[in-house]
């Protein structure tokens, strides 16, 4: 297209010469004769009649400067024939309204030929022909870039710059060039994945505080991508890969890092499991207790990682059943990548964690000898024997002769207290020479001082410099996950020395004893959750959690509003654009619609009505290779066009197409066909005239069959007025010198810019109705009853409707599966209902953003709408599982206790995973390809809404409504039905008689503090203890008596609903938020 810079006529001698020179850039290519339309008679390129060059110069060639009179005469002829679509084609839309008339716009169209030399038809080996066309247009692209001196930069296509020549703005467009440019842009956008990798790597390093772990865990995530592609290509035999599949990289980065965080936390927490500590205490070999630690890590994390991975895989597989192949292939690749990432997390990450623990936590690198460590062990053992300050109080541990130390850490989540743990000497721990020297010289070590303090405390004396603390707390899961575990501490300190900090440890743990003073969260997210989120949610005013109630109601309203907007989402009104809005190719569609005289037939839907076809045999067609083996046409064996009845039926069809009414909104003129004389291409009347001129006295009705067929074949290849050779070759189908089909072409009054729904209505009501009427009157014995109204536009309509259908199919599949997964994971119907309602609201809010932006339900929205279900499950399922596990593991019955445990032990992990995915999506916003910024926005919105609804709506519901105790649990229902005992025996249902943690502590005989604390009564305010009126109700089940298990020194006390009503507001001192007495669980 051409646009003159001033508001004057574009048709001046200089401008016409400029337009001619621009078009010569195309015609001047040496390969143009091989791709142009061929004149059937001369076998030379046809003159491009729809070009400015042909209108003003008469032919392509040189571009001399024409006289003003010549240019003005041609322009006047165009103005005077506005009713002729062939001439008004060159004029701007405002031309008729101006007096005198003039146009500041003009345009040209160059038709290319098909098939190429060596091919039978344009559909013969179409993939190979497409390759030849693409190479040609690559040359065209290079030539135009060179002619206009265009420069591209990264993330800035040359086509986004305004192109002018002599003050004339020039734009050009080709669908093949669009594909070429899209691939170039996608290649540049792909490099932005590097920034996502750096962000995820940086965030992973910050969270883990360990460069070794973050590096190799990041490599594990990245490694899952090429493996997934290999499986996708050589196992599923899918070779289709386009720009849409690049999105998988950004998705896997976020999801993979989330899985690593969960497993990492599980590994750190497993180091403090009593069974692991027991093995170390008993002097078990390193491989034995490390194996146990890995087993516990798997038990606590693999289920959660599998559940979240499974729901995400299901959401992508739901897109895999889409009838739109690109979306389906994307879903398959994404699901494959998530599955392989899960497998690698379960296999490689444990090995990475184990290697880091042995090499850097314990200092046992394969390159270093252990002989020196063994010598130090022997010397230190001798020193310990003579150090009275390190002798333990044997009365605290019965008959044991081992020295003990007090290990104190504060558990801000569950307030579980453990009085003392035997101090372990590990044979392979690296030693510090400083404390060893102190012991040899008889100096008091840190451990010795602690033992003195213990004795002083028991005798009623205050240790110097410290406040007496008679209750000690094991650190929370979150705190432990962010610092050295008890296991590692014991291994390091077992011989009296601390381990040297690893070079890979970016933030070595503080050497200060955790239990002395206040234990503070280690990471910024932990601090945010403990000092910000938790006090905010538990703030009370007049006995009510006012902020929690406000958030619950606000997000309930927001979710309903989001759903109301989401239901408005529908298919797009026009074909989806993927290039930037300021890109030349994207602007062209707007120019053609807004700046030129309407009536150009190219802006309306073209329909072909064939006779003689019986469908299509796809055979070995592979939908993932759309350009290959597309199949073959099945011809009607009864088709015969020679009989008079067949010819008359064909002419009836031409006349019916012209007169067919159309009252649908998509039709512009009240008729199905466009009113232009060229709207209907019906070759038979032209052939009959041509036949009569060549055969005087004969007609197509009274000639012989051989005459009819031979003349028709000559007519098909000859250049004749009124119809192009290209059109005739499409409409008259000779195959191996046999007439197999004939067809009519109808340019309808349905504009391409009309919405998908409107075009579909016109198709079903008018186009299909027209074909039905034609078949009703056609002679079936001659195969004239197989007419269909076919159009490439219908393919686009079906694709867009397929996107919508696939979206709703995915929603219908994912929501029930998500609910089942949630219920199986939490085994609580109430929590599952909270979670599924939260997910519904999240999906509604994400899709409402699409409506707010003015977008429709396109490819990106269809993927995101289903994907968000799998993503949002990841957040609520961790919180819901932790809330339920607070009772099953720690016997926390009141909802306040369980909320506190969940908020402090899981909220920061959920937030960390959300930040990873959110950050991985941000580089997408900088991409040129419009699909990627759209998906980046949808991914970011998904994470944002998932985090806010899970932490503020879902958690508010748990805090305010419950459940309390086992209400809503599967066990609760089974108890009512009498099936509970059986389900417990076969391991399907949780047991409420004893928490997992309680059983483990009872087994190890580690819980003694509870009985002592109960005997002492409430502590004085400010003593560092938590006041409470709990009593020690230690008991033993008959099963335990039979097994002769050690006696439990302190039990976990159930809380009643009545006591829950008396919950006090959290104190103002958020440094150490303490719940009221009913919220305390002591051991």
From TrEMBL:
Q: Where is this chain primarily localised?
A: membrane
Mention any one GO cellular component term assigned to this protein in its UniProt record: membrane
Which InterPro entries does the entry link to?
Dispatched_Hh_regulator, PTHD_SSD, SSD
Keywords linked to the UniProt accession: Glycoprotein, Membrane, Transmembrane, Transmembrane helix
Lineage: superkingdom: Eukaryota
Record's keyword annotation contains Membrane? yes
Q: Where is the composition biased (Polar residues)?
A: 473-488
The entry sums up its family as follows: Belongs to the dispatched family.
This chain belongs to which protein, by name? SSD domain-containing protein
Q: Which organism is it from?
A: Amorphochlora amoebiformis
């Amino acid at each position: 297209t051409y646009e003159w810079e001033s508001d004057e006529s574009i048709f001046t001698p200089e401008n016409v010469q400029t337009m001619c020179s621009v078009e010569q850039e195309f015609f001047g290519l040496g390969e143009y004769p091989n791709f142009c339309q061929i004149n059937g008679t001369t076998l030379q390129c046809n003159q491009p009649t729809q070009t400015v060059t042909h209108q003003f110069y008469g032919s392509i060639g040189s571009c001399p400067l024409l006289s003003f009179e010549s240019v003005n005469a041609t322009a006047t002829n165009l103005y005077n024939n506005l009713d002729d679509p062939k001439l008004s084609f060159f004029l701007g839309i405002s031309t008729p309204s101006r007096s005198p008339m003039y146009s500041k716009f003009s345009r040209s169209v160059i038709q290319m030929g098909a098939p190429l030399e060596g091919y039978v038809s344009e559909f013969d080996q179409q993939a190979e022909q497409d390759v030849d066309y693409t190479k040609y247009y690559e040359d065209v692209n290079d030539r135009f870039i060179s002619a206009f001196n265009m420069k591209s930069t990264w993330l800035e296509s040359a086509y986004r710059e305004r192109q002018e020549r002599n003050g004339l703005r020039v734009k050009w467009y080709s669908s093949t060039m669009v594909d070429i440019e899209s691939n170039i842009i996608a290649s540049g956008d792909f490099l932005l994945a590097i920034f996502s990798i750096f962000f995820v790597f940086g965030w992973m390093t910050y969270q883990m505080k360990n460069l070794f772990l973050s590096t190799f865990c990041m490599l594990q995530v990245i490694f899952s991508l090429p493996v997934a592609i290999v499986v996708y290509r050589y196992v599923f035999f899918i070779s289709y890969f386009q720009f849409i599949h690049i999105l998988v990289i950004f998705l896997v980065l976020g999801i993979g890092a989330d899985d690593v965080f969960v497993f990492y936390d599980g590994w750190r927490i497993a180091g403090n499991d009593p069974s692991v500590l027991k093995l170390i205490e008993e002097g078990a070999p390193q491989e034995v207790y490390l194996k146990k630690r890995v087993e516990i890590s798997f038990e606590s994390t693999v289920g959660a990682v599998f559940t979240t991975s499974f729901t995400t895989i299901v959401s992508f597989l739901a897109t895999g059943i889409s009838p739109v192949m690109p979306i389906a292939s994307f879903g398959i690749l994404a699901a494959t990548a998530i599955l392989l990432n899960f497998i690698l997390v379960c296999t490689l990450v444990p090995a990475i964690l184990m290697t880091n623990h042995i090499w850097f936590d314990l200092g046992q690198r394969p390159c270093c000898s252990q002989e020196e460590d063994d010598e130090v062990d022997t010397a230190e053992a001798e020193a310990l024997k003579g150090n009275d300050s390190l002798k333990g109080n044997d009365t605290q541990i019965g008959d044991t002769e081992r020295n003990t130390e007090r290990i104190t850490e504060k558990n801000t989540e569950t307030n579980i207290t453990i009085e003392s743990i035997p101090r372990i000497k590990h044979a392979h721990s690296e030693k510090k020479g400083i404390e060893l020297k102190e012991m040899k010289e008889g100096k008091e070590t840190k451990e010795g001082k602690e033992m003195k303090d213990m004795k002083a405390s028991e005798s009623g004396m205050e240790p110097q410099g410290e406040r007496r603390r008679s209750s000690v707390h094991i650190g929370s899961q979150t705190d432990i996950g962010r610092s050295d575990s008890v296991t590692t501490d014991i291994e390091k300190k077992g011989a009296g020395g601390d381990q040297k900090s690893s070079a890979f440890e970016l933030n070595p743990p503080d050497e200060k004893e955790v239990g002395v003073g206040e234990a503070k969260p280690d990471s910024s997210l932990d601090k945010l959750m403990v000092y910000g989120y938790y006090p905010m949610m538990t703030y009370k005013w007049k006995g009510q959690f006012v902020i929690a109630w406000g958030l619950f109601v606000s997000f309930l309203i927001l979710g309903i509003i989001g759903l109301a907007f989401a239901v408005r989402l529908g298919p797009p009104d026009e074909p989806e654009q993927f290039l930037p809005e300021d890109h030349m190719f994207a602007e062209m569609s707007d120019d053609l619609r807004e700046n030129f005289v309407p009536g150009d037939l190219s802006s309306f839907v073209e329909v072909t009505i064939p006779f003689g076809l019986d469908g299509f045999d796809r055979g070995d067609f592979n939908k993932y290779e759309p350009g290959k083996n597309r199949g073959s046409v099945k011809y009607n064996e009864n088709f015969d066009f020679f009989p008079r009845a067949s010819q008359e039926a064909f002419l009836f069809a031409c006349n019916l197409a012209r007169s067919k009414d159309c009252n649908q909104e998509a039709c512009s003129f009240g008729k199905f066909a466009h009113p232009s004389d060229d709207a209907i291409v019906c070759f038979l009347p032209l052939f009959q005239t041509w036949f009569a001129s060549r055969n005087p006295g004969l007609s197509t009705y009274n000639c012989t069959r051989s005459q009819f067929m031979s003349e028709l074949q000559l007519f098909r290849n000859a250049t004749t007025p009124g119809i192009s050779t290209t059109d005739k070759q499409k409409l008259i189908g000779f195959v191996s010198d046999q007439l197999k089909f004939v067809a009519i072409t109808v340019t309808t009054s349905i504009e391409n810019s009309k919405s998908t729904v409107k075009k579909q209505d016109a198709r079903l009501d008018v186009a299909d109705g027209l074909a039905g009427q034609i078949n009703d009157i056609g002679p079936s014995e001659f195969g004239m009853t197989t007419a269909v109204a076919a159009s490439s536009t219908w393919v686009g309509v079906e694709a867009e409707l397929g996107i919508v259908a696939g979206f709703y199919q995915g929603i219908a599949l994912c929501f029930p599966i998500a609910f089942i997964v949630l219920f199986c994971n939490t085994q609580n119907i109430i929590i599952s209902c909270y979670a599924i309602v939260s997910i519904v609201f999240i999906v509604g809010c994400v899709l409402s953003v699409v409506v707010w932006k003015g977008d429709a339900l396109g490819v990106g929205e269809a993927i995101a709408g289903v994907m968000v279900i799998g993503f949002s499950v990841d957040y609520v399922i961790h919180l819901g599982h932790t809330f339920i596990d607070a009772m099953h593991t720690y016997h926390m019955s009141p909802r306040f206790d369980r909320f506190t445990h969940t908020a402090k032990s899981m909220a920061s992990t959920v937030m960390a995973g959300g930040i990873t995915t959110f950050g991985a999506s941000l580089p997408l916003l900088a991409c040129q390809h419009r699909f990627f910024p759209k998906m980046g926005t949808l991914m970011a919105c998904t994470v944002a809404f998932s985090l806010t609804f899970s932490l503020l709506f879902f958690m508010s519901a748990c805090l305010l409504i419950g459940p309390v105790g086992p209400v809503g649990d599967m066990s609760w229902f089974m108890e009512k039905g009498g099936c509970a005992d059986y389900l417990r025996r076969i391991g399907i249902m949780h047991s409420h008689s004893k928490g997992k943690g309680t059983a483990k502590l009872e087994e190890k005989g580690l819980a003694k503090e509870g009985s002592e604390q109960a005997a002492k009564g409430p502590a004085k305010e400010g003593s560092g203890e938590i006041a409470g009126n709990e009593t020690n109700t230690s008991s033993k089940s008959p099963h335990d008596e039979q097994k002769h298990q050690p006696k439990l020194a302190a039990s976990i006390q159930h809380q009643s609903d009545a006591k829950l009503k008396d919950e006090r507001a959290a104190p103002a001192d958020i440094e150490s938020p303490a719940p009221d007495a009913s919220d305390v669980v002591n051991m």
